[in-house]
């Protein structure tokens, strides 16, 4: 059987496709259910449609750990230590190893603990908006979308107040120079090493002086006599930082951009703030903060939509494309903040379903309405086609979002003056 070969990296080379990937994904879905991918981490198969993505992601015949299908581990003797820590994180593991790690962290990462953060997330949001509101043009990513999740995670981890600026600067410098690919992380070797040392010191501190924070919980968590060793702890913190930060930045940044570009949807949300839950779910579906999940590997010979997939083959699941599949989402290319049901797969599904989904949702549910309450009017300060987008193959994010704003009440006071 001949199969279409797709070079995903090429597809997103031009700025237009990064700004609006939906024609690329539509083209891929038109090509078929199972495509051959040319270059992603050594080639394999590419699944662009909802049906196959949502099945394979939950299919126990596929592994997330390449070693379980006889592939060489990416972790070699020459792999830098902190990269090794990232490669050993639970997102790249299978049960029972994965279950063990997830159980240990889940205990400390309960929805109840996340819900308790609401008040603090509101305070941080207000402080950031106070600082931004003094300007006639705000830059939504730098002023709100980026610092909000970073401050929240720093506080959750129990970074002492005196060290927070150092932590934020260190982490933000890694983020802005690169993203999460192995090559780009290696390039940031020195900064990553500093971050590792910083976190190791923090672990020591929280071991000696536990506080009411996630890291203290992780340090002391025990499940049936089992606990995380120091490397597992740092690996877990790295995963929380890298899986959780830029994704949330993109949810808020891209989400606000799409609202601002659609005044009818923006007006609807202003008129009925109760729509925020469906609005956030629709943003997650439509703006696709994550293009594809960690690769899966066939543990045995399987067939997907009639295509034989040999044991050991790598499969890339395009969750962003699945979210735009017309067969599941009517008018998939339209942002509809009232859409319900909305079975998007932006947080994945099954074993590796996003651990931080409640936190990401909480932050977006607080940040977006706070922004709308603070400003009566929001408008792009530059034409949409001039906005810069991150060059990242898996994550989609607007890099800067300048907005001309009118503070709440200012237009009324101008009218009465
Ligand atoms: C809009 C924001 C976010 C999106 C779109 C997102 C998306 C995802 C996706 C698609 C996966 C599944 C990966 C796979 O199947 O290979 C995942 C896993 C994960 N996410 Fe998120 N995420 C977000 C925010 C967060 C946050 C805030 C945190 C924590 C602070 C977090 C922590 C994790 C962890 C630890 C995993 C691995 C779970 C496991 O392997 O069992 N994520 N995320």
Automatic annotation (TrEMBL):
PROSITE patterns documented for this protein: CYTOCHROME_P450
Which keywords annotate this record?
Heme, Iron, Metal-binding, Monooxygenase, Oxidoreductase
Q: Which CDD domains match?
A: CYP107-like (cd11029)
Q: Which family does it belong to?
A: Belongs to the cytochrome P450 family.
InterPro entries referenced in this protein's UniProt entry, alphabetically: Cyt_P450, Cyt_P450_B, Cyt_P450_CS, Cyt_P450_sf
Do you know which PANTHER family this protein is assigned to?
CYTOCHROME P450 YJIB-RELATED (PTHR46696:SF1), P450, PUTATIVE (EUROFUNG)-RELATED (PTHR46696)
Name-wise, this protein is Cytochrome P450
């Amino acid at each position: 059987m001949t199969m279409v070969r797709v070079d995903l990296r090429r597809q997103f080379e031009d700025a237009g496709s990064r700004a609006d990937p939906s024609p690329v994904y539509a083209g891929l879905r038109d090509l078929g259910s199972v495509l051959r991918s040319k270059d992603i981490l050594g080639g394999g198969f590419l699944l662009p449609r909802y049906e196959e993505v949502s099945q394979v992601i939950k299919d126990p015949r596929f592994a997330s750990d390449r070693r379980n299908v006889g592939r060489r581990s990416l972790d070699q003797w020459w792999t830098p230590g902190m990269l090794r820590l990232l490669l050993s994180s639970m997102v790249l593991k299978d049960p029972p190893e994965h279950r063990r790690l997830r159980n240990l962290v889940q205990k400390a990462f309960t929805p109840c603990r996340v819900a308790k953060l609401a008040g603090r997330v509101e305070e941080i949001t207000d402080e950031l908006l106070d600082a931004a509101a003094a300007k006639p043009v705000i830059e939504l990513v730098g002023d709100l979308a980026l610092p909000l999740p970073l401050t929240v995670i720093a506080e959750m981890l129990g970074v002492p107040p005196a060290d927070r600026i150092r932590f934020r600067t260190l982490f933000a410098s890694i983020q802005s120079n690169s993203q999460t690919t192995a090559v780009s992380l290696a390039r940031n070797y020195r900064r990553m090493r500093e971050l590792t040392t910083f976190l190791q010191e923090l672990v020591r501190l929280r071991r000696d002086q536990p506080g009411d924070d996630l890291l203290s919980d992780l340090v002391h968590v025990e499940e049936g006599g089992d606990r995380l060793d120091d490397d597992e702890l740092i690996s877990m913190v790295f995963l929380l930082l890298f899986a959780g930060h830029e994704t949330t930045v993109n949810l808020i940044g891209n989400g606000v951009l799409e609202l601002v570009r659609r005044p009818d949807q923006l007006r609807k949300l202003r008129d009925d703030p109760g729509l925020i839950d469906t609005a956030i779910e629709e943003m997650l579906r439509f703006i696709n903060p994550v293009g594809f999940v960690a690769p899966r590997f066939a543990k045995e010979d399987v067939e997907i939509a009639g295509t034989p997939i040999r044991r050991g083959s790598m499969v890339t699941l395009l969750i962003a494309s699945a979210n735009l599949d017309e067969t599941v989402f009517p008018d998939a290319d339209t942002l509809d903040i009232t859409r319900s049901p909305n079975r998007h797969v932006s947080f994945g599904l099954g074993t590796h379903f996003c651990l931080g989904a409640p936190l990401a949702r909480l932050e977006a549910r607080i940040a977006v309405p706070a922004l709308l309450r603070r400003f009566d009017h929001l408008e792009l300060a530059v034409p949409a086609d001039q906005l810069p987008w991150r060059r990242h193959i898996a994550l989609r994010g607007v890099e800067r979002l300048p907005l001309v704003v009118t503070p709440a009440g200012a237009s009324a006071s101008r009218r009465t003056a």
